[in-house]
Prior knowledge:
The structure holds 2 protein chains of 2 kinds.
Chain A: H1 8-34, H2 41-45, H3 52-60, H4 62-85, H5 89-106, H6 128-142, H7 150-160
Chain B: H1 2-15, H2 24-30, H3 34-58, E1 70-75, H4 79-88, E2 94-100, H5 107-117, E3 123-125, H6 128-134, E4 140-143, H7 147-159, E5 163-166, H8 174-187, E6 191-193, H9 201-213, E7 220-228, H10 245-250, H11 256-260, H12 272-288, E8 292-300, E9 314-323, E10 326-335, E11 343-349, E12 352-356, E13 364-368, H13 376-380, E14 410-413, H14 424-434, H15 444-463, E15 467-468
Parallel strand pairs in B: 1-2, 1-4, 2-3, 4-5, 5-6, 7-10
Antiparallel strand pairs in B: 7-11, 8-9, 8-15, 9-10, 11-12, 12-13, 13-14
Helix pairs in contact in B: 7-8, 8-15, 12-15
Amino acid sequence: MEDATLARWPMIAITTLRVFVGWHFLYEGIAKLTSPSWSAAGYLKQARGPFAALFKGLAAQPNLLANADLITMWGLTIVGILLILGLFTRLASLGGIGFIVLFYLCNPPFVGYFYSIPTEGSYLIVNKNLVELGALVVVLVTGTGRFAGLDRIVHGLVGRRPRLSA
Amino acid sequence: MAVEDTKRKDTARAGAAGPRKLDRRDVLKGLSTVPALGLFGYAWSRQRRYQQAKLEEAAPQAAPGALQEINVALLGAGAQGQVLTDAMLRIPGLRFRAVCDVWTEYNQKRVVNQMRKFKHEVNAYEDYREMLDKEKALDAVVIATPDFWHSQHAVDCLKAGKHVYCEKEMSNTLEGARAMVAAARDTGKLLQIGHQRRSNPRYLHCYKRLLGEAKLLGRIVTINGQWNRALTPDLGAPDRYAIPDARLKQYGFRDMRQFRNWRWYRGLGGGPIVDLGSHQIDIYSWFLGANPTAVTARGGNLYHDPVTHEWYDTAMVVYDYDTPLGPAMGYYQTQTTNGSQGYFENFMGDQGTLLISESDVHGAKLYRDTNAPAWDTWVQRGFIAAPKVQEVKEKADTAVTDVRESVSPDEHKVPIVMRDPVHQPHLQNFFDAVRGKATLNCPSEEAYATAVAVLKVNEAIEAKSRLAFAPEDFKI
């Protein structure tokens, strides 16, 4: 399996990366959950780029927005916990990638688009969202949960069951 | 190498498919990142404690823990009622108890359903008097009915002992507006009028910091402002949701068309100068610290048929002011045939210009006039952003240059970003005042002065002449 082909130190490094990304997701989620008035509306309304109309439309419909808010808050929290623990790592990585793709497309730093809220850095095409997405792709393809994470135990437990085909 | 060997062992173990043993190493490695979650929990609890401490510091009188819950009813669930509802649903500590709207077939249902989705178990009413009779626990009523109903609704709610937030224009008649002020005074209940720019952080920053503390404009001499709105169609209503004629008549409407487009009709609304201009003319007086002394206005139905649009579709207005710093004039235009450049207010002083708008299209920008002292201190203090130097285009040799042309001033953005719905801070101010933690940003006396200034425009258009105000016109 491809997740076992890396040497030990690179795997430790990628595991650390996974925990860092998980930490960030978890805090983004928890900060929103514990804020009484958080809503994605502000971010969505600032949408720029080719998909701006879609995001703004979402912000304009209270019912859809309420769902989007819930999915974002809980999604980020759950993905964060799973990444830190290394549990269902691939599924969590995919979920995280999904979120980041949406965040990225909502305000893409493409040539000619600018973000109306002042940002803390300067970006062209690649921004920190995309870097975090890249980190999650590394986590996804290396499956570090089976190196250091609960996936290792889950995999072991599941693996111990006799297979029907055996 | 030992590391390589370990790696191979790991590799073999991790890569093995099928039955295998879960040994101590698997368990240890499997649990190796769990402490990170514990560390996160510790860091988060520290962060929570810090935030809590900051909050308590900011609001020393606040009861620890829970907010005092306010029982609220919405009276008028149309387009504006919807806007206010969306903003209120974001404000903590509110409990919606009732929704009242005469369009039970549509508007009332829509807002009731929305509130129920947000876990507010509201009762629906057609008649506000029945609501006031039955909903004894109400603390506050938010009114967003057509202008001609405001006075009666607000007065009755105040007399029933409720605090009232009423949309602007506070009334379509000055008698109605006076009755509202009187009712608020008699009952001692709060009456906030929905000139929501008065609570907008962007406007408050400009008023308190830029004009008040830093006096960046010097003496304001002229103002120009506008609200240009593109053509808006007849709002219409599907037949299956039509209100029966008897009910329409009962509530003062001729037919469904008039009910839906009441802003176009005399006796029901006040026309674009009231619907749109009122917000901005209110800011003219607020920023100048003076009510107008006279108004000159022209207007008419330049585009629309006066049969369907009884009010003027276009108005151009000049106000005279006598401010504490000297005379000033303010121009205002509103038209409803072209939305170009939207809405803004532009205050021009002898040291600088402030272009401000509730809309993010314009935001707020300051232009330093060349004869003004340097603004570096205010940039450093964060009152305004560093300047964007205006681009000077090289002129062709043949171009005729006016040697008296002023150098373009530097543009400074006002660094206030408004992320909430624009009505939210004003509603928040009202509910804070209900809790006794704030004073109203637009009490009825202030809004009355604005109503006097704005309603006079329609009179001036009618009279085709300059109409003067006496200082006592604004007092009540």
